[in-house]
Amino acid sequence: MNILILGSGGREHALAWAVKQNPKCDRLIVAPGNAGIAQIAECAAFDIENGSAVVQFAEENAIDFIIIGPEAPLAAGVADRLREAGLLVFGPSEAAAKLEASKRFTKEICAAAQAPTAAYGHFTDASAAKAHVREHGAPIVVKADGLAAGKGVIIAMSEDEAVAAIDDMFGGAFGGAGAEVVIEEFMDGEEASLFVLVDGEDVLAIGSAQDHKRVGEGDTGPNTGGMGAYSPAPVLTADIEAKAMEEIVKPTMRLMAERGMPYQGVLYAGLMIKDGQPRLVEYNVRFGDPECQVLMMRLGAQALDLMQAAAEGSLAQARVNWADDHAMTVVLAANGYPGAYQKGSEIKGLSALAEDSMHMVFHAGTKLENGQICAAGGRVLNVTARGESLQTARDRAYAMADSIDWEDGFYRRDIGWRALD
Ligand code: AMP
Ligand code: GLY
C-alpha cells in the first residue's frame, strides 16, 4: 500500500511512525513533513490545502490511502476532492469538519441531539452579546465562532473581562473567525480527551488522553498548543467513557448522518468531567497534537488498520488490541514560546538516543541545515515513552529529555502531575 500523510508536526511524525511499522505499508510519503519525518519517510512539497494539488500528487504517485493530519485541509474540503477522485481518504468532509470550524454549529448539533454540554448563546452583534453577559454574570466563556488557532477562547473571570473580549472579537482580533461569537456557561471539573474513529455510521473508541495547555509548571501562564500529554486519562474511567459514548458521541454522530453530513475520520471529544458526568467542551475533527503522539505510541502498527477500516466503512468489524500500558510525551519548546522565539539553533544529542517501541522522539518543528537538526518552530520536539505504569513512562521520557542538548529550549518538569500525585 502506498500511503500519503498530510501535515508537518509531531502528530504527523507519530502517525508516520505507526503506519510505517505495519507490513501493509510499502511506500510512505509525508507532505510537507519535517526533519524527523524525513528519517523514516519520503517528504514532498506541495500545497496541502489545495484539493486539486493533493489529488494530482496522489494520482501521479499511485497513492492508495491518504491520511489528513491537520484541520486546515479538512476545513478546505481536501477530503471531498480526494473522495470525488475515487481515492481512499481518512478525514471528514468539509461539511462534517464544521464540528471544529464552527463552534455554533457544534452547539446546535449538541442541542438537537440532547448531548450534555455548556448552555450557550450565539451573537452577531456586540450589544446583544454584552447584554447576555450582564444577564448571566461571570465566570463566563467567550469564543470566536471560527478557527482561531486555539486562541479564540476567553475564560472571563469578570463581566468586564467578558465585555472586553466581545469588543476584541467583533473588532476583528481574530479576523473572520470572530464575526460570530458564542458565549457559554463556565464549566467546572477535570478535562480529558476521548478519541473515537467514525466511519459514517459506526464508532470505535481508540483511547483517551490528557494534555497540559498552559506553558508553566503547575498549569500556570499563557495557553499553548499543549506542553505534554499522557494516555490513558485516569479520570476517564470505563463508566464515564461509556457515558460519553452513549450520551454525546453516538447521538451527535447519528444526527450528522441523518442531516446528510456523515462523519468519517477521527473525532476528538474534549470533555469536562464532574461528579461522574462528562460534558462536551468541544469537538475537533483530527487527532490532538501532542495527544496523537501518546496514542500512536500505544497503538503502534494497528493504527493503520483502524484508520483504513474507518475510511472503508468497516469499523463494525474492527477491534483495538489494547496493551495494559501507559505513554507520556514531554514537549520541548523554544525559549519564549508561546510568545516570540528564535528559530535556527542546533539541537544536539538526538542521534545518541535509542529509539524503539518504548522510546521515540517525535519532531514537531525541526529542519535539517548543513546536516544538523535545527529548531524551526515554537514546539520543537515531543519526547515520548511507554511503560507498564505512567511513572515508568514518565521516568523514561524525562531521562531522554534530560540527555538532549539544546540551549535555546525548555520543557515542563511536571507533565502528568494530576495523574501521579
Ligand atoms: P476550546 O477551543 O473550545 O477547546 O476551548 C479551549 C479551552 O478552553 C478548553 O480546553 C477548556 O480548557 C476551556 N474551555 C472552553 N469552554 C469552556 C467552558 N464552557 N467552561 C470551562 N472551560 C472551557
Ligand atoms: N492539544 C490540543 C489540540 O490538539 O487541539
β content, as a range? 25-35%
Fourth-level CATH superfamily of the largest domain: ATP-grasp fold, B domain
Assigned CATH class of the largest domain: Alpha Beta
The CATH architecture category of the largest domain equals 2-Layer Sandwich
How many domain regions?
4
Shape: globular
Query: What is the residue-mean pLDDT, rounded to a whole number?
Result: 95
* Tally of DSSP β-strands: 22
Rounded to the nearest angstrom, the radius of gyration is 21 Å
Number of helices: 13
Query: Which cofactors or ions or other ligands sit in this model?
Result: adenosine monophosphate, glycine
Give me the CATH fold name of the largest domain.
Answer: D-amino Acid Aminotransferase, Chain A, domain 1
Helical residue percent? 25-40%
Between the first and last Cα atoms, what is the distance in angstroms? 45 Å
Weakly predicted, low-confidence segments: none
Largest sheet: number of strands, sense, barrel closure: 9 strands, antiparallel
Summing up helix and strand content along with how strands pair, one would put the structural category as: alpha+beta
